[in-house]
Design goal:
The protein is mainly β. It has a domain of 79 residues: OB fold (Dihydrolipoamide Acetyltransferase, E2P) (Beta Barrel). Helices cover 10% and strands 50% of the residues. It has a five-stranded mixed barrel. A hairpin with a 5-residue loop joins strand 3 and strand 4. The longest helix has 8 residues. The radius of gyration is 17 Å and the shape is globular. 14% of the residues are buried.
């Protein structure tokens, strides 16, 4: 007997859950902090996908959001200017149905530019 797990739990392309993994991303801020709604603020950063052999792949624009009540992160990100180099750790969420990538932040650090 062959059974598809999706059939047992009544899942299809329309009701797939959002997948989540812990990650960190580094990239450049593309715009100032935006207020999304009453709970969240966000910043968009441009990251480069690295592939095997050290070569770089395509560039991705990732929206990083955080709770407005987290003053520690908010104070740091409000100072971030366009083209600031950032490293953000958190959970990356991907809605497979809508192909939307978003990172919920846990920590943010500036990466100094080489002189």
């Amino acid at each position: 007997i062959v059974v598809n797990a999706g059939d047992l739990i009544d899942m299809n392309q329309e009701n797939l859950p959002i997948s989540s993994i812990s990650t960190f991303v580094t990239g450049f801020a593309t715009e100032p902090v935006q207020s999304d709604d009453e709970l969240f603020k966000s910043i968009k950063i441009l990251v480069t996908k690295f592939i095997k052999g050290g070569s770089s792949g395509k560039k991705l624009l990732i929206k990083c959001r955080y709770l407005k009540s987290d003053e520690r992160i908010d104070k740091k990100l409000v100072r971030a200017r366009k083209s600031s180099n950032l490293m953000i750790t958190g959970e990356i969420l991907q809605n497979l149905h809508h192909s939307k990538k978003q990172t919920d932040e846990h920590k943010k650090r500036y990466i100094p530019r080489p002189t």
